[in-house]
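Honest question from a wet-lab person: if I give you the sequences of every part of a complex, can you actually get the arrangement of the whole thing, not just the pieces? Trying it with mine:
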Amino acid sequence: MVLIILKMSKKASEHISPVLNIPIFRNLPEPAGRMLDGILVRREFSRGENIFIEGSESTGFYIIMKGRVKVFKLSSDGKEQILHIVGSKELLGAVSAFAGNPYPAHADAMEKTKALFFPRKDFLALIKNEPSVVMNMMANLSMRLQYFTRMIEDLSLKEVPGRLAAYLLYLSRQPGYSETVEIDISRGQLASLLGTIPETLSRILRRMSEKGILEVSGRRIKLLKKKTLHDIVNGEKAGL
Amino acid sequence: MVLIILKMSKKASEHISPVLNIPIFRNLPEPAGRMLDGILVRREFSRGENIFIEGSESTGFYIIMKGRVKVFKLSSDGKEQILHIVGSKELLGAVSAFAGNPYPAHADAMEKTKALFFPRKDFLALIKNEPSVVMNMMANLSMRLQYFTRMIEDLSLKEVPGRLAAYLLYLSRQPGYSETVEIDISRGQLASLLGTIPETLSRILRRMSEKGILEVSGRRIKLLKKKTLHDIVNGEKAGL
DNA sequence: ATATGTCTTTGACTTATGTCAAGAACGTAA
DNA sequence: TTACGTTCTTGACATAAGTCAAAGACATAT
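Yes, you can. This is the full assembly:
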């Protein structure tokens, strides 16, 4: 039923299935693309809506088309640690779906989010016929592993100012930013991503402003002394 | 009994390439196994020897056959954080070799280690012909991702006693252990694995002994109050 | 056995960061 | 606008954990 709606929503003007633009489906032949159109289920989530919870059985995975999703763990006292933020064209819950394990974390939509759901059984059938999909997914997993490797390093080796500095410098290397970066998440969320609490983050931002390293105005932050930020990442105290 | 097993494994090797017992090569046809015998390079490392360093180019990956290898990061002041310990039948450096990235961490042999080296170019050739290898590797990567997810949670959500308790309980669930566990790494290494320093670990072990939660004698630790350990994992202070 | 080097433990001290509580700033809806 | 709820900031405080330094235990080799 949902499948029919999907099909109808696709205009004949599109001679190439748009799903073939999704990284893990790159290089697939066109017939496979048409087949995917019939398998993938469109789903929408509103801001703050839960997509899955930790421990629940994985029935498939999501390809995020629009919006952002936070994947996070909760401690026994309700504090959350964001593991990562999944954005457009990225996969959500793929590892669990592949391995057949329950989801290891919670996922909430951070804003209005559109996604395609890929049922596990259909996915397992697809990879039998199209091994290249597995190759693409492995590249995807590899990147995630490298990201996590780095995150473990950040969380365990550096103090909060170092983690913040690393994050700001990372943002400044993203396309469109250089001297000024726009933090696209709230202070509290950023604190969680850095493995700390809003109070601590707030204090550190103030101290960095006082030292003339940053200029903070809401979610817009100007990096005045990038060199000092690099030093902080490398463990320098920089008089904070 | 041991002799019989030994004999059988020797006999079997005359008919089936032993490499086909390695998880990622499971289900490969015998001809591929013989081909692998000609590709894999036997390498040995002595205790403490470096296998690769962070940032160096990845020319292939290792399959550990005997011994253990620690994969770790170094902070600017030389402090190390162990990411994981790779043991028998496990892969070392596979992500980098697959993605063609430099190694993201250092790897040192913790003891005399025997490994098979799989050159990157040969591996890329193999997966073209044998997609099932990629499936097996993806299962491997998935497990690693889940492990890292858990590790990030441990490092960021829990205090050191909680991480220690989680590790001890994890060991006690391993085959062969229940009330008493044998820590197979030195105090300093364990500290690094838990994201702390030997001094702190030492103090916490003492406090737990004083409270009658543990009984420590060298690398042998008796878990006297498992329930309390669980409470500590869940954030209870337990009067430490 | 003795000596040498490494690993581990302990104590005194410092510091980064979390907790608690209150006020300020901000956004949203009436 | 005002009022309300949320988020952010700030201060005083508590504490977990790191640093430094020294002593003790342990293992290895001579």
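Two things worth pointing out. Residues 84 and 144 of chain B are 10 Å apart (CA to CA). The longest strand of chain B covers residues 60-66.
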